[in-house]
Amino acid sequence: MRAEEIPPGVQEVILPSGERALAYSTGPTNPPPAPAAPAVPVAQPIPAWAKTTALLAPTVGGGIGMAAIGLSTAAPGLIAMSHALWSAVAFIATGSAAAAVLIGRARARINGAQRPQITQHITATGLFGRAHGTINHR
């Protein structure tokens, strides 16, 4: 068959065995364009964010390293300081508990003679009866 006789949407293909056959095409009916010559690579400018990141990476890494060295050097002092703070908290808690006991005893002595004694007598008749009571201050 000549190339003019091939209907549109059909093209001539070469099979792996070397035979020529007609096949329906799913792409354009025109022959593919010849490959273009490889383009010469052009140097592109480096983006500003890439420059900033490249400059910050060693700075941040160095800062983290220095912080680790500082913490390892200060660790014994930090442990001692935490022990001292817990001791101070325990001392304050013990002192406030003792102060509360002493103040309570002192108030009991001062107000011991002055406190009135209150007694109540409440009576009720029946399960749902009204309650009556008296309050005695001595």
Number of helices: 1
Average pLDDT taken over every residue: 84
Helical content, roughly?
A: 40-55%
Query: What is the rounded Rg?
Result: 50 Å
The residue ranges in which pLDDT falls below 50 over 5 or more consecutive positions are none
Report the biggest beta sheet as strand number plus sense, adding barrel if it closes: 2 strands, antiparallel
β-sheet strand percentage? 15-25%
Task: Tell me the structural class.
Answer: alpha+beta
Shape: elongated
Distance between the termini: 133 Å
Number of strands: 4
In what order do the strands lie side by side in the largest sheet? 1-2
Order of helices and strands: EEHEE
Can you tell me about this structure?
By secondary structure, the chain is α+β, with helices and mostly antiparallel strands. The protein contains one helix and four strands; from the N terminus they run ββαββ. The protein has one helix at residues 48-111; strands at residues 10-14, 20-24, 118-124, 131-137. Strands 1-2 form a two-stranded antiparallel ribbon. A two-stranded antiparallel sheet has the order 3-4. The radius of gyration is 50 Å and the shape is elongated.
What tags apply to this protein structure?
two-stranded antiparallel sheet; single chain; 1 helix; 17% strand; 138 residues
